[in-house]
């Protein structure tokens, strides 16, 4: 039987979209400097601490710009100890395949899916964020072939818990040219995450967008711990001291890996999606860093879900800057947490 699939339209290539919304010399310089700063932190040359922080999903251009503008102003106050990488996630994995899948699918969450307009809207938003705030952002690499639409704007990319064992994601991560966080899988097996890091750090040859390609390997592929759910549906965090030290030992066992690093995701299965728990979890991780030189050298940052307003709302809600996917910390709590973390670094 033939594949049952309707071909709607051919999408523009990344090059065509980049020509429609080009970067200028200012953006290129910002990205170049930011990329170097982040690499230096991950390699240990710079002792600052990274916060990958922002909305669960970047669903509204105006709200995202307002959020990152506030973050940019706060960055100036804490730049000697903290470096922010805003989460501007425009594509979202869904556990059961339904629901809002991000701006790439629906540039307007209240209208039908339109991936042509979604790609354009996402590119435009990322360009505006860098231009207006001076901060380059993080994305989730849900679709490996989508990365090229934004590759000249991003400074960090993550491979999600559902994708981390996928061959195409691992091989693409070896050639993205920026730090790439590999999350532990939803089932919790850390060997899967470590295998992904090893695959991403090595040169690879594979098929990408209809081409046979070679990649040099990405020495800044790293671990993201996000907790997990066991086969009985019970939630298990992995941000505690013992979990962090275990990852330190796993890195030691694979002494071929470069720039050992962990970023702890304070939400998802670490918080059991209780967004307020992120505050306690972040401080717990900082305490572990203070208690162990090994953990201090390994844990380079935190991932925090934060937006303008606390919590979440349904798609179609009228609360400006309130998440329509997972609940997030609002701005006031975010600002207070960042100032507390500044004192704990």
What does this structure look like?
It is a single chain. With 345 residues, the protein is α/β, with parallel strands linked by helices. The chain has one domain: Aldolase class I (TIM Barrel), CATH 3.20.20.70. Helices cover 38% and strands 16% of the residues. It contains ten helices and twelve strands. The chain has helices at 14-20, 25-43, 61-78, 115-133, 167-173, 190-201, 241-253, 277-291, 293-298, 331-344; strands spanning 49-54, 82-86, 137-140, 154-159, 180-183, 204-208, 211-215, 221-225, 228-229, 235-236, 262-265, 299-305. Strands 2-1-12-11-8-5-4-3 form an eight-stranded parallel beta sheet. A two-stranded antiparallel ribbon has the order 6-7. The chain has a two-stranded antiparallel sheet with strand order 9-10. β6 and β7 (211-215) form a beta hairpin. The chain is globular, with a radius of gyration of 19 Å. The mean pLDDT is 96.
Question: Brief overview, please?
Answer:
The protein is of the alpha/beta class.
- Treating each run of at least 4 consecutive H or I residues as one helix, how many helices? 10
| Terminus-to-terminus distance | 59 Å
Q: What is the radius of gyration computed over CA atoms, rounded to a whole number of angstroms?
A: 19 Å
CATH architecture identity? Alpha-Beta Barrel
CATH level 4 superfamily: Aldolase class I
Shape category: globular
Share of residues in helices: 25-40%
Secondary structure: number of strands? 12
Q: Tell me, what is the CATH class?
A: Alpha Beta
Proportion in β-strands: 15-25%
